[in-house]
Amino acid sequence: MSVVRLASARAAAPKPAANTNAKPDWLDTIIKGDCVAALDALPEKSIDVIFADPPYNLQLEGDLHRPDQSKVDAVDDHWDQFESFQAYDAFTRAWLLAARRVLKPNGTIWVIGSYHNIFRVGASLQDIGFWILNDVIWRKTNPMPNFRGRRFQNAHETMIWASRDQNAKGYTFNYEALKASNDDLQMRSDWLFPICNGGERLKKDNGDKVHPTQKPEALLARILMSSTKPGDVVLDPFFGSGTTGAVAKRLGRHFVGIEREQAYIDAAAARIEAVEPVDAATLKLVTSKRAEPRVAFLTLVESGLLQPGAVLTDARKRWEATVQADGSLAHGGEQASIHRMGAKVQGLDACNGWTFWHFESGSGLEPIDALRAEIRKGIAAAGA
Amino acid sequence: MSVVRLASARAAAPKPAANTNAKPDWLDTIIKGDCVAALDALPEKSIDVIFADPPYNLQLEGDLHRPDQSKVDAVDDHWDQFESFQAYDAFTRAWLLAARRVLKPNGTIWVIGSYHNIFRVGASLQDIGFWILNDVIWRKTNPMPNFRGRRFQNAHETMIWASRDQNAKGYTFNYEALKASNDDLQMRSDWLFPICNGGERLKKDNGDKVHPTQKPEALLARILMSSTKPGDVVLDPFFGSGTTGAVAKRLGRHFVGIEREQAYIDAAAARIEAVEPVDAATLKLVTSKRAEPRVAFLTLVESGLLQPGAVLTDARKRWEATVQADGSLAHGGEQASIHRMGAKVQGLDACNGWTFWHFESGSGLEPIDALRAEIRKGIAAAGA
DNA sequence: AGACGACCTGAATCTTGGA
DNA sequence: ATCCAAGATTCAGGTCGTC
């Protein structure tokens, strides 16, 4: 991979190839311009894989503050604003159609989104004729909490992986490599990665983030390692901070980026320039750092290992409490978590409820941690 | 909850309620018939939560309402596919509209699906006016492997949780109970459960499974514990083997099922009949602070817990303010509520005065929230 | 040097009730 | 319907300064 050249959409127009071995001038460049116009200027059937991170169409009303009153830096950029679902659908269809034209017959496309937009994207993909191969969940190790306690913590994003046509069977999927890298188990459709922060996150001189939604390189690495081969051409029509380009170069794939904002282009070009390609064979897939999967006490109740109404005691039977259907413990007219209730009855500040509370098993008193261990045995196969 | 009575859609038609305390005759029954017709026969705004597991195979041509009944000949694959999606969308819109009519204004709906149908369902939900609150991922501990090795192992299903309208803020979400049951961490949008097999899986005499897609009770238990209260009415328009009804009965919720196939109805009715409801006392949810009675700061002064002229400080004694006889705080020549004054001294927009301001008790600095708790204890004793 | 703690931040459709 | 005020609410992890 050579230097990153920047070209306008016009300059990137396809030329009659006098020498078919010549590298197209749009390869390994960032094209500045509107994504549909730029796609239309590329030759058809020239791209192996498309990764797209389109605007999510978040519909934010007021400001959101954390409990400490600090303000959440929201994604309120103009490019994420659409008038209606209809307008968003029109935008989606337009770029998906343009993307499909440049995709090779056996090429595949990845699109990432959240519940705000992913259902519309998925339906448009199907309407246009793409064939969904998988939806893949990016589980975040460190998602932003829900600050007002009115919903579940939004802890994942959804990716759709689709082939160009229902009958395109020749797409690239490195099944064996993925399996070998995953303890000889098939790679599942739920992946666990941290969000992009720390040293990987691009910052301006003033410390502000360069791009509001920079994706982690580990996520792109798994995508490219699973569905491309070395030398393939990867296109990203919403290039942003250039994660796709950086990972493609590192893994020996070619890239094409399309981006409207000059500031993003500049940052991405400098970033990619600094990337050292590695031998793909040496790339290790990121695996979970977490030792033991977290198990909710509620899961023990839901799974029937403990019935609501069951009585738990401490090891010396000095205190007891009743298991509630909601996964709390009741004692003396009050309800709290296993930990809080353990602390409360002892008059302490904190307590590990898993080891404090016991249940009567066939062979005597056992800590509820034994039941957690059973659950964990069942879920070991699912990964952390 | 009484016996499971079976009623036809016609028999379930709403009747003028002579006695508003009478239990509707469709409650805790399985209605046999087409889902849209049966929904249309129920009274509007009568359901608290809907759980729906709609079919997604497209071989239901006869059951789906095609916009154009005429046969299209010589269709190519692409057109045929488009027609199929269109038919599925029409079916989806029809039952979602009927479902929305019977939902209470603050009711919510859960729909589960896979990548085959969930994008269409999600887009239809949004188009109709439902407001998505979360998408929740059911991660399977033991999913079926991908036998051909051509895709990722399909290890999850997607659920969409939505309110009836964008502005319906009063929906039930048992945030505190979920948090208490999850190691005191808020519940995430990715849930881990085994698929339904073993003793829970309904089998025919010949060993065949009764229903192809029986959902695990643990999954429904989490759904109902998170978004319903005891006594709520839960409707399942694709009742199948009756998991929704069985879990609702066990957890002290009412159910309504709609199902076309007599074999499923028979199996579900027998299954639900055998369910033992858990003890009502164990169904009590961890209380949220929002649900507790409001106490005016003035009450603390009136009741003598705080004297006018008493000095309050923050936890680190950086600021102080004087209690006024009218229940305000004075500081720097100004008077304001405990909240406004807390915000003012810190230079913030908002502040919870109950936890910010402290008083000197015998055993050190305590938040005035402790005094509010005392008042509330008195209110509870009086039988609020 | 290393431990500790205060502080900051991330794709967010994030309150409720009474006048 | 709108307006206003009460008051409820966060997890993982990185950075940086202090001891």
From TrEMBL, chains A, B:
<feature type="domain" description="DNA methylase N-4/N-6">
    <location>
        <begin position="47"/>
        <end position="268"/>
    </location>
</feature>
<dbReference type="Pfam" id="PF18755">
    <property type="entry name" value="RAMA"/>
</dbReference>
<dbReference type="InterPro" id="IPR040843">
    <property type="entry name" value="RAMA"/>
</dbReference>
<keyword id="KW-0489">Methyltransferase</keyword>
<keyword id="KW-0235">DNA replication</keyword>
<dbReference type="GO" id="GO:0006260">
    <property type="term" value="P:DNA replication"/>
</dbReference>
<protein>
    <recommendedName>
        <fullName>Methyltransferase</fullName>
        <ecNumber>2.1.1.-</ecNumber>
    </recommendedName>
</protein>
<dbReference type="GO" id="GO:0009007">
    <property type="term" value="F:site-specific DNA-methyltransferase (adenine-specific) activity"/>
</dbReference>
<dbReference type="InterPro" id="IPR001091">
    <property type="entry name" value="RM_Methyltransferase"/>
</dbReference>
<feature type="domain" description="RAMA">
    <location>
        <begin position="285"/>
        <end position="377"/>
    </location>
</feature>
<keyword id="KW-0238">DNA-binding</keyword>
<keyword id="KW-0808">Transferase</keyword>
<dbReference type="GO" id="GO:0005737">
    <property type="term" value="C:cytoplasm"/>
</dbReference>
<dbReference type="InterPro" id="IPR029063">
    <property type="entry name" value="SAM-dependent_MTases_sf"/>
</dbReference>
<keyword id="KW-0949">S-adenosyl-L-methionine</keyword>
<dbReference type="InterPro" id="IPR002941">
    <property type="entry name" value="DNA_methylase_N4/N6"/>
</dbReference>
<dbReference type="GO" id="GO:0032259">
    <property type="term" value="P:methylation"/>
</dbReference>
<dbReference type="GO" id="GO:0008170">
    <property type="term" value="F:N-methyltransferase activity"/>
</dbReference>
<dbReference type="Pfam" id="PF01555">
    <property type="entry name" value="N6_N4_Mtase"/>
</dbReference>
<comment type="similarity">
    <text>Belongs to the N(4)/N(6)-methyltransferase family.</text>
</comment>
<dbReference type="InterPro" id="IPR002052">
    <property type="entry name" value="DNA_methylase_N6_adenine_CS"/>
</dbReference>
<dbReference type="GO" id="GO:0003677">
    <property type="term" value="F:DNA binding"/>
</dbReference>
